[in-house]
């Protein structure tokens, strides 16, 4: 399903220096393809950040590990400097979204705007007719039109991050790991003697390797930006409970950092950038009836109004059955069959028909409390 139907191809493989992309490259070599490895340099680290970058998917150590694996497999390896494109498409967007009181997902932006588009462009120069990665997703080519499917292992499925892929590129993509589990991938890496076989998984966003988003935003935003200025913390009834030092440190569903002394556990329910208010309340108020989703990208025909589909609104959450209330091709209004919890503006909502990814977009707002 993922190996190009037995036809030998020249394939550019995105190699981050992790075990997944290493095994993906190895499997394509084993399948007889002409493989070229490519690692993308997305960010320029300072000294402190360079040490912390070992925890990320795109750290400096990853370039060395990817090159070592490529040497082991006997394939050429290139490093592409995409810092300018990555800054424009991912970092600037990340900063702007937090400035608007939203919570972005930079990995989705990277895959949609930088990684695959850039690899296709550079791959053509190298004579490649396909691009591969170590994502845990599947491509079904059995029906003529390629269909993007969830990975076979629910614990590792990464289809949530790929809804923004251009539909016209699906036919030239390869995802060798789609049918495997993580333990199976590590076992293959050990059997092949790959240096990345037991490398820990990346834990942090590559350009915030310390994990401290607040410090990062303070470097990128003007000190007078509303996201960094004090404001009120109010409860769901509008009563002032305290003050914060900037709403950039909060996201919907957050519990940590709200302090104690309250009658029950409170969570962040809403961020209001216009008034710099952070609204908190009991967990039950996180449930909402619907959502509006913008910046939609379709990998199948857009569903008409009154269509039922599955919408996944967080990476680790189960999909929610919902009704398409309205759709104009670039935005969708959804009504959930059952209230959904902690639906967060800025995050992705990915649409499924069974296991098939049919599209996705960014949550712009929620529509109605579940209480």
Task: Give me the secondary-structure topology.
Layout: E1 10-14, H1 19-30, E2 34-41, H2 47-52, H3 60-73, E3 77-81, H4 83-99, H5 106-125, E4 130-132, E5 137-140, E6 147-150, E7 173-174, H6 182-192, H7 213-220, E8 231-235, E9 240-244, E10 266-272, E11 277-282, E12 287-298, E13 308-312, E14 320-327, E15 332-341, E16 348-353, E17 356-366
Parallel strand pairs: 1-2, 1-4, 2-3, 4-7, 8-11
Antiparallel strand pairs: 5-6, 8-9, 10-11, 12-15, 12-17, 13-14, 13-16, 14-15, 16-17
Helix pairs in contact: 1-3, 1-6, 4-5
Explain what this protein looks like in three dimensions.
- With 371 residues, this protein is of the alpha/beta class.
- It is 24% helix and 29% strand.
- It has helices at 19-30, 47-52, 60-73, 83-99, 106-125, 182-192, 213-220, and strands at 10-14, 34-41, 77-81, 130-132, 137-140, 147-150, 173-174, 231-235, 240-244, 266-272, 277-282, 287-298, 308-312, 320-327, 332-341, 348-353, 356-366.
- The strands form 4 sheets. Strands 12-15-14-13-16-17 form a 6-stranded antiparallel beta barrel. Strands 3-2-1-4-7 form a 5-stranded parallel sheet, sandwiched between helices.
- Helix 1 packs parallel to helix 3 (60-73), helix 1 crosses helix 6 and helix 4 (83-99) packs antiparallel against helix 5 (106-125).
- The radius of gyration is 22 Å and the shape is globular.
Alpha-carbon Rg, integer:
22 Å
Question: Which geometry do the CA atoms define?
Answer: globular
Termini separation comes to 46 Å
Question: Share of helix among residues?
Answer: 10-25%
Short overview:
This protein is an alpha/beta fold and 371 residues long.
């Amino acid at each position: 399903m993922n190996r190009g139907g037995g036809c030998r191809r020249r394939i550019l493989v995105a190699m981050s220096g992790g075990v997944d992309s290493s095994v993906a490259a190895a499997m394509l070599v084993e399948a007889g393809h002409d493989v070229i490895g490519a690692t993308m340099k997305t960010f320029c680290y300072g000294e402190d950040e360079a040490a912390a970058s070992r925890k990320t998917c795109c750290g400096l150590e990853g370039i060395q590990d990817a090159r070592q694996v490529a040497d082991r497999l006997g394939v050429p390896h290139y490093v592409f400097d995409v810092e300018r494109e990555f800054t424009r498409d991912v970092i600037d967007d990340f900063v702007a979204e937090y400035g608007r009181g939203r919570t972005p997902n930079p990995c989705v932006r990277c895959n949609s705007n930088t990684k695959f588009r850039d690899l296709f462009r550079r791959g053509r120069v190298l004579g490649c007719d396909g691009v591969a990665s170590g994502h845990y997703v599947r491509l079904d080519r059995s029906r003529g039109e390629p269909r993007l499917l969830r990975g076979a292992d629910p614990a590792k499925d990464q289809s949530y991050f790929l809804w923004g892929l251009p539909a016209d590129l699906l036919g030239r993509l390869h995802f060798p790991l789609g049918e495997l589990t993580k333990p199976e991938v590590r076992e293959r890496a050990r059997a092949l003697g790959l240096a990345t076989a037991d490398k820990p998984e990346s834990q942090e966003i590559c350009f915030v390797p310390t994990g401290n988003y607040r410090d990062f935003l303070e470097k990128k935003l003007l000190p007078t930006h509303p996201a960094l200025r004090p404001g009120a913390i109010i409860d769901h009834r509008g009563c002032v409970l305290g003050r914060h030092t900037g709403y950039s440190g909060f996201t919907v569903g957050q519990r940590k950092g709200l302090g104690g002394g309250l009658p029950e556990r409170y969570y962040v329910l809403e961020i209001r950038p216009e008034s710099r208010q952070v609204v908190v309340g009991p967990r039950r108020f996180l449930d909402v009836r619907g959502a509006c989703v913008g910046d939609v990208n379709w990998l199948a025909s857009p569903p008409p109004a009154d269509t039922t589909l599955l919408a996944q609104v967080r990476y680790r959450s189960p999909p929610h059955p919902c009704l398409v209330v309205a759709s104009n091709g670039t935005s969708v209004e959804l009504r959930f069959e059952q209230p959904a919890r902690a639906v967060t503006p800025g995050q992705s909502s990915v649409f499924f028909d069974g296991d098939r990814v049919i599209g996705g977009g960014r949550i712009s707002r929620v529509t109605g409390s579940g209480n």
